[in-house]
Design the sequence.
């Protein structure tokens, strides 16, 4: 016996699946865009882990970028030095002036200072 042709509903179902895939892609793209833009209520530590830990290590001991922890050369520098490094970038370190406002930079410097006192 011959099979019945696909019902129209089956084709529509395919369309819905496509829509679901498109929506899913949009969600993924939007999520990717928000990476690197910390929220207003994020702590200095959270901002550090989000933006800096890749290169300076989660525990500040350095990697691609220099050690920022206790006894490091930046621990002996004034706050302005760290602020400038963050805002302008340094060597191969990118500038973060477009992703952080001055309050977030303050919180970040505060976090580094706290860790450097340990
Ligand atoms: C892509 C890797 C990368 C990221 C991300 C990064 N840095 Fe850096 N950072 C570096 C490199 C490399 C240097 C050394 C630059 C030079 O002096 O040539 C550096 C230097 C610094 C310095 C100066 C240290 C010194 O002793 O001269 C500070 C302070 C600093 N980074 C803080 C931060 C903070 C805070 C963040 C997060 C907002 C951050 N960095 C994110 C790579 C990075």
Sequence:
């Amino acid at each position: 016996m011959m099979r019945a042709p696909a019902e129209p509903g089956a084709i529509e179902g395919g369309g819905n699946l496509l829509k679901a895939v498109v929506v899913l892609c949009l969600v993924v793209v939007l999520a990717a865009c928000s990476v690197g833009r910390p929220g207003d209520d994020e702590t200095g530590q959270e901002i550090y882990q989000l933006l800096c830990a890749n290169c300076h290590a989660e525990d500040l001991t350095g990697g691609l970028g220099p050690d920022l922890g206790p006894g490091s050369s930046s621990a002996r520098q004034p706050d302005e030095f760290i602020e400038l490094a963050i805002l302008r970038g340094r060597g191969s370190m990118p500038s973060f002036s477009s992703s952080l406002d001055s309050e977030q930079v303050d919180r970040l410097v505060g976090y580094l200072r706290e860790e450097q006192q340990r």
